[in-house]
Amino acid sequence: MIIAETTFKNTSTIEQFYPQPFYWYMGHFSRYVPPGSHRVNVTNPLDPTGNGGDSKGKPDGSLEVFAALTPQGQVSVVALNRNDDPISFELQDAATGRSASLTVGAHSVHTYWYGSSDAASF
Questions:
Q1: Are 110 and 63 in contact (CB under 8 A)?
Q2: Residue 83 contacts by C-beta under 8 Å, 6 or more apart in sequence?
Q3: For residue 61, what are the contacts with CB-CB under 8 A and spacing of at least 6?
Q4: What pTM does this model have?
Q5: Which of 26, 29, 83, 119 is an S-S bond match for 59, by CB 3.0 to 4.6 Å?
Q6: DSSP secondary structure, 28-83, as one string
Q7: pLDDT digits 0-9 by tens, 38-89
């Protein structure tokens, strides 16, 4: 997930680190989806292929989404946009009836979380 370039010159070491996109993506899971969480079903009309891209892995304009219920009773929704343009979508919780209009920027990942008993919107 990180490419490290190390060069030895004389007695010093020059190091450069290049975090790859997957590094940041996994950071969302490790921070917002703690151990003991349970994946919940997501209906994603923006992902017609079911895998976020065409058969060769090229982004197809869809949005990849994962959702989980944490042991603390929060819902975590991780959304990934691998496309060149932002994607706007409506996040709706069927259990509570709440919804929010959201936008994921081009080539970015966003995490949204809320408590199942929260009175406020997302």
A1: no
A2: 59, 61, 62, 106, 107
A3: 83, 87
A4: 0.73
A5: 83
A6: HHHHHS-TT-EE-----TT-TTSSSB-TTS-B-S--EEEEEE-TTSEEEEEEEE-S
A7: 999 888 877 766 666 777 767 777 788 889 999 998 999 999 888 888 999 9
Integer Cα distance of 102 and 119 in angstroms: 19
How far apart, in whole angstroms, are the C-alpha atoms of residue 93 and residue 90? 10
Compute the distance between CA of residue 72 and CA of residue 116 in angstroms, rounded to an integer: 10
Burial class of residue 83 (count of CB atoms within 10 Å of its CB; 0-12, 13-18, 19+): buried
Q: How far apart, in whole angstroms, are the C-alpha atoms of residue 65 and residue 109?
A: 10
- In tens, the pLDDT along 74-87 reads 999 999 888 888 99
Instruction: Please answer whether residues 70 and 76 qualify as being in contact, where contact means their C-beta atoms are separated by less than 8 angstroms.
Output: yes
Radius of gyration of the chain (CA): 18
What's 37-115's CATH class?
mainly beta
Instruction: Using DSSP, state whether 8 is helix, strand or coil.
Output: strand
